[in-house]
Design goal:
- This protein is an alpha+beta fold and 357 residues long.
- It is built from eleven helices and twelve strands.
- Helix 4 links the parallel strand 2 and strand 3.
- The longest helix is centred in the middle third of the chain and has 18 residues.
- The radius of gyration is 22 Å and the shape is globular.
- 43% of the residues are buried.
- It holds the Pfam family AIRS_C.
Length: 357
């Protein structure tokens, strides 16, 4: 009677050697993100990432800002296309553009990558995208975790999440307290769908319209897969540059929940933000989703960003300076609305008019 071989981590589906190989492949990309406060403090593979907090000595009262987020079901598009080096841009944008909303400078980030099976090159490609995103946001990638969950996830399934930290001087904290009647609302164009609403998008385009990722869509000017995998624009450094040159009162990152709901989060009691749809034309992808699923405009607007990824609220006399700064940085921006006194039936923010064609 033969003896049954003893169980091992490998027989349970976890490949430690593959994980080690992935770490080696990602090291060069992580190194490219190092800020001065991180350089020389340990390295990838330690139990904790390190950041030299003596940098805060130049602040009178430093406030740390933190955020955590994921990419949502957009990861399914990356998996189906076999393209893994852009999804990290989305992750950094979701985390660090939340942090910059209060005026904080992004400092460092950690990631969490969960996979059904470690494919070293695939994991390294995901981290490459995260590292490139960190460079665009001006922060360091100081560590992370790659977890292999066989049996829970399929061999090709994965998910990503991240957490970030930033810092802002207390008396430069942006937000509702600064907003005044008459302020202008400046919109900054999105690069597309960004990383929200993909459950609706996938349901409409794949389940209802039966479109294919490799299908060329004339109105998009490229394949559907290329459009859906377009990385989320990272506004962090643009917003920081704007706060240095302009009297910014607040920012709003337009993510899940849509434009009006996210803008309302920074509007104080007693005031109201009105955004005029006629000041811009949403990209073709928004029209495609709406028509393919017969999605009502209100449903689209509370799910998707409709072509606006970030909004800045500034005094009227700062509008020209703000638009010039953003234009110099290659950010498409425009005055989309204004702040008024809240009427009896008004909410925090609302959209009016019809989109331009």
């Amino acid at each position: 009677m033969s003896e049954t071989p003893g169980a091992s981590y490998a027989s349970a589906g976890v490949d430690i050697e593959a994980g080690d190989r992935a770490v080696e492949l990602m090291k060069e990309w992580v190194k490219k993100t190092q800020r001065p406060e991180v350089a020389g403090l340990g390295g990838l593979g330690g139990f904790a990432g390190l950041f030299d907090a003596s940098a805060f000595k130049r602040y009178e009262r430093p406030l740390l800002a933190s955020a955590t987020d994921g990419v949502g079901t957009k990861v399914d598009i990356a998996r189906r296309l076999g393209v893994y080096d852009t999804i990290g841009h989305d992750l950094v944008a979701m985390v660090m553009d939340d942090i910059v909303v209060c005026g904080a400078e992004p400092l460092f980030m950690t990631d969490y990558i969960c996979v059904g099976k470690v494919h070293p090159e695939r994991v390294a490609a995901i981290v490459k995208g995260i590292a490139e995103g960190c460079v665009l946001a001006g922060c360091s990638l100081v560590g992370g975790e790659t977890a292999e969950h066989p049996g829970l996830l399929g061999p090709d399934d994965f998910d990503v999440a991240g957490a970030g930290t930033g810092v802002v001087e207390a008396d430069r904290l942006l937000g509702p307290d600064r907003i005044r009647t008459g302020d202008a609302v400046i919109a900054m164009a999105s690069s597309g769908l960004h990383s929200n609403g993909y459950s609706l998008v996938r349901h409409v385009l794949f389940d209802r319209a039966n479109l294919k990722l490799d299908q060329h869509i004339e109105e998009l000017g490229r394949t559907l897969g290329e459009e859906l995998l377009e990385p989320t624009k990272i506004y962090s450094l643009d917003c920081l540059a704007l706060t240095r040159t302009t009297d910014v009162h607040a920012y709003s990152h337009i993510t899940g929940g849509g434009l009006a709901a996210n803008l309302a989060r920074v509007i104080p009691d007693g005031l109201h933000a009105t955004v005029d749809r006629s000041t811009w034309a949403p990209g073709a992808i928004f029209d495609l989703v709406g028509k393919a699923g017969a999605v009502e405009r209100l449903e689209l607007e509370k799910t998707l960003n409709m072509g606006v990824g970030m909004m800045a609220i500034v005094p009227q006399d700062a509008v020209d300076s703000a638009l010039a700064t953003l234009a110099d940085r290659g950010v498409d921006s425009w005055v989309a609305g204004e702040i008024t006194e809240r009427g009896e039936h008004a909410t925090g923010a609302a959209l009016t008019g019809d989109y331009s064609k």
